[in-house]
Design a protein that fits this description.
transmembrane, membrane, transmembrane helix, mainly alpha
Length: 54
């Protein structure tokens, strides 16, 4: 029979790891989206410069 502390520790480690994993995925996803938005802004800026120079 496991002690209550052991069960609580196992739950804490499991849920802590789960929360850390989900937050890491969220941060990576937000970074990916922001980089895509930056690339899109650069592309639009280049297109505007091409239109004004022509």
């Amino acid at each position: 029979m496991a002690y209550r502390g052991d069960v609580a520790l196992a739950f804490g480690v499991f849920f802590g790891g789960l929360v850390a994993l989900l937050s890491a995925i969220l941060i990576l996803w937000l970074g990916f989206l922001s980089s895509m938005a930056m690339l899109e802004l650069m592309r639009v800026q280049l297109r505007i410069e091409d239109n004004t120079s022509a």
